[in-house]
Amino acid sequence: MNQYKQILANGLWWENPGLIQFLGICPLLAVSNSLINGLGLGLATIVVLMASNLLISIIRGWVAQDVRLPVFVLVIATFVTVIELVTQAWFYDLWLSLGIFIPLIVTNCVILARAESFASRQSPPAALLDGLAHGLGFASVLLVLGALREIVGTGYLGRGSSMLFDTDMNGIHVFGDGQGFLLALLPPGAFLGLAMLIALRNLMLSRRRQVGAAETAGEQSAL
After folding, report:
1. Cα–Cα distance between 115 and 95 in angstroms, integer?
2. Phi, psi of 174, deg, nearest 5
3. Out of 22, 95, 117, 208, which residue is the most buried by the measure of CB atoms under 10 Å away?
4. Distances from the Cα of 206 to the Cα of 39, 138, 202, 212, angstroms
5. CA atoms within 13 A of residue 39's CA, in its CB half-sphere
């Protein structure tokens, strides 16, 4: 159980792909201009990560070292193709909105890195959990960044929810008249938003270290 808890903690916080490893930055910055776009790409990435990790862990003993990476890429590309076809068939508007970034999941360094560094060396349950943890970590950054950029840029949250859910809602009105700060929706807004999330995480860690150091010093003085 401790191993599985550590896998979850690493994927969600200590080794978060978007905030710590800086992997998959291209889709992270390009797609995170709205909550629904971020959620759609995040769900697709989670499914591909979990499925590819599980299959690679199962077949790892049968794959020769010389062809390991090509086989991994083939496995990932297969699942990405399935996800793209499913999205095109059942979530056509979302497929149009995400565009090239669904097939580009194949080139997402997060997926290949987890396949090479973890799934190919661990048992199927651990590999599956690792895919879920890192997928959730990546998707959480997409969701938070997308929500922040959408609110600041448009004054709404969740516009286009009908692309993913069976609803007639056109988002929640947060402030203004639907015309927010345009910079938030442009590429510079993505970089600024991600930088603020990284700074917030670093601040939280710094405060935690300070509290830990103060508690340690108090225990030593008591002794």
Report:
1. 26
2. -100, -50
3. 95
4. 30, 22, 6, 10
5. 16
Q: How far apart are CA 85 and CA 106, in angstroms?
A: 14
Segment 73-110, tens digit of pLDDT: 999 999 999 999 999 999 999 999 998 999 999 988 89
Per-residue pLDDT for 124 more than 70?
Answer: yes
Report the relative pairing of strands 156-157 and 172-173 from DSSP bridges: antiparallel
Query: Are 71 and 112 a contacting pair, CB within 8 Å?
Result: no
Longest dimension (CA), the chain: 67
Which residues on neighbouring strands pair with residue 157, listed in sequence order?
A: 172
- Weakest-pLDDT range from 19-23, 135-139, 165-169, 201-205: 165-169
pLDDT, one tens digit per residue, over 188-220 is 999 999 999 999 999 999 998 888 887 777 777
Tokens of 43: 């769900």
Mean pLDDT of 112-127: 94
3 state SS of 45: helix
The stretches of 12-123 forming alpha helices (DSSP H) are 25-31, 35-59, 68-90, 92-98, 109-117
The answer to whether residues 157 and 150 touch, using CB atoms and an 8 Å cutoff, is yes
Q: Which residue has the tokens 């080794």?
A: 15
Question: Can you give the C-alpha Rg of the chain in angstroms?
Answer: 20
CA-to-CA distance for 221 and 208, rounded, in angstroms? 20
Distance CA 29, CA 196 (A): 13
Task: Determine contact, residues 205/184, Cβ cutoff 8 Å.
Answer: no
